Amino acid sequence: METCKISNVKRSVAAGSRGSQEIRQMVSGVLTAEKIAIEELVNSIDDSLVEAIELLLECKRHIVVTGLGKSGLVGRKIAASFSSTGSPAYFLHASEALHGDVGSVGRQDILLAISNSGETAEVVSVAAAVRNVGCKILAMTGRPTSTLAKIATKTINVGVSQEADLFDLVPSSSTTATMAMGDAIALALCQLRQTSKLHLAQLHPAGMIGRRLLTRVSDVMLTKADVPIVEETETIANSLLEMTQSRMGAVLICDTEKKLLGIFTDGDLRRLIQEPSFSLQDRIGSVMSRSPKFVFLRELAQSALHVMEINKISVLPVVDEDLSVTGIIHMHQVLSFGITS
Question: Rounded to an integer, what distance in angstroms lies between the CA atom of residue 40 and that of residue 277?
Fold first, then answer.
């Protein structure tokens, strides 16, 4: 039934008129075919896959991924996904492995050999070689009865009914299915190992993941003279001067020991000036917002951004364990670090 769906899409592309509509049909046809390939994988999940994942979970050393051609390129990505989610892994080029590099594989490693046909000579030879040193082998193939599958300890079936091209020849649906299965296994292992956010951050010290999971409020906040602070006895007029000079759109109200008492923002000012009794000589303590939202010094900057977005505010006081003000953080500062909630 799924094969019929793919064929119908391909026929519609072949029969379509040339131009933008035909291009849309071409793209849609390929994406639909690859979507169907992944749906086929979902429907084929069985005990063999569970046993393969359990075997990987018990791996005492490295998951060594090997492949050639398109399968090799997919294998590199799968190995990277394993390593970045807490399962130590590396990619071993099948051709180079047969010229000495296979010596890097030991009996405590697990070889994940990828070949859609299961007959790629170099991949089969690598699997045979590491089997001789007692290494367990997982075959990821579209043919569970292939030579590679027969050598393997366990087989992961990534077979698809058709490729996405008109001639059913170009590795497309099969490579998508293989990569998706690699992601599924890597993330299943990540969950089974109960990998924490902190561990993921340590594995991604740079880039978006690292910034989101490692950047703390203390890395982003303004401190010392840049923090607009007044005492509650200060006039509204002088408090506004402090707020204007800091360009933070807010002023923090503290006691003599810098304990946070309240906050006054430009939004508070807009509401206040509508009051008939408003006077710039009034004490700021009489109009400040008491019990303001705040963040602790060691919290993640991403958490601070979340608090600001939820409460629709742009500024947060930063306090230590004694609730003494140590800084102030603005939403724009967090966003400038490339951090999103």
Answer: 72
